[in-house]
Amino acid sequence: MSGHQTTINKSDKLKGVCYDIRGPVLREAHRLEDEGHRVIKLNIGNPAPFGFEAPEELLQDVIHNLPDSTGYCHSKGLFPARKAVMQYTQTKGIENVTVDDIIIGNGVSELIVMAMQALLNYGDEVLLPAPDYPLWTAAVRLSGGNPVHYLCDEKQDWQPALDDLRSKITDRTRAMVIINPNNPTGANYDKALLQEMLEIAREHDLIVFADEIYDKILYDGEVHHSIASMADDLLFITFNGLSKNYRAAGFRAGWMVISGAKYRAENYIEGLDMLASMRLCANVPSQHAIQTALGGFQSIGDLVLPTGRLGRQRDKAWDMLSSIPGVSCVKPKSALYLFPRLDPKVFPFQDDEAFALDLLRQEKVLIVQGTAFNWPDPDHFRVVFLPRMDDLQDSIGRIANYLDRIRKK
């Protein structure tokens, strides 16, 4: 036995990679729960624990097909599932998509990493919104690329600030990521703005990655526009899945759709096919839910009505947060989140993770700090409005009590 043992370190590829939605604050929440405390979790968009159940027919289809789901399937996914996704793209106005242009993944998360790994060389840059869903930033870094964040403008309902976006483009920029509807802000982008983003992508020959996982969770009669339906001269990769619209996050059933200028991307698409084959296939049982989900009754439509559970909880959470002195919040038009702002004159936080930890320890409420979403200043936090009304009122009341104690008088 050698007396000298070196420390085993994580790879350099993980430098700068973080996913703080499940980071140190969540670990502290688990510690408090182990001590017997009840923590109200406003930290993660996971519908099932809050009583948002997947449609019964999805479960029945998975159960019915379980005996035939024990083997590998085609590396891109089951044919009926991909066919259903293809037909869905037609309803969204995305043209010339074939079954072969669709890859099913173990959730959108796996496919985002796959799309970045297949594309990026060291030093390539990808434009990402700030705030963003942080997996995007992590996937770009893990793939050897440099994430470059363009600001979204809170005063304009969190629409992307196009002047800032233009100023971030260099000769290393390969792609633009559009998260619409947006997590964490709840913004739903205007069609005219998407047209302008297309013009920028066209001018600089950028690939457009469109994360549209919340495209059915829309309030107040909002309409979602798939950016891939608005042009065919650029390469588009559109991501969606069952996690949010169908409350089946644990199924890990997502898909990517390749559309537009596919003829210019044969080599890249070959890389995607190779990575899809390397993981053999996505999990087979949950793929049986995709056709039923996309073709069946869209129960999400009732939930987002003003009288629906999501609609009512959004309104209550927004009303309560907006009424806290020193807190302002853009009312979300989509998704499951609020991204309130803490007035720095009233709450001069230097470290928003320390704020989130202190709130957790004092009030047993778990939120995610704004910088976890690559927002540059420590003046925002994200709240999930999935908990039932009584828990939601209780938890936001606790946030109000905490902020009242520490407010600069």
Summed up, what is this model?
This protein is of the alpha/beta class.
Q: Care to describe what's here?
A:
The protein has 13 helices and 15 strands. With 409 residues, the chain is an alpha/beta fold. The strands form four sheets. It has an eight-stranded mixed sheet with strand order 2-9-8-7-6-3-4-5, sandwiched between helices. Strands 11-15-14 form a three-stranded antiparallel sheet. Strand 6, helix 7 and strand 7 form a beta-alpha-beta unit. Helix 1 packs parallel to helix 12, helix 3 runs parallel beside helix 9 and helix 4 packs across helix 8. The chain is globular. The N and C termini lie far apart (64 Å).
Give the overall shape, derived from the CA principal axes: globular
| Helix amount | 25-40%
Structural class estimated from helices and strands: alpha/beta
The chain-level mean pLDDT equals: 94
Summarize the helix and strand pattern as letters: HEHHEHEHEEHEHEEEHHHHEEEHEEEH
The share of residues in extended strands comes to 15-25%
Could you name the ranges where pLDDT drops below 50 across 5 or more consecutive residues?
none
Radius of gyration, in Å, reads 21 Å
Strand count, sense and closure of the main sheet? 8 strands, mixed
Which sequence of strands runs across the widest sheet? Answer: 2-9-8-7-6-3-4-5
Q: Helical region count?
A: 13
Number of strands: 15
Query: Termini separation (Å)?
Result: 64 Å
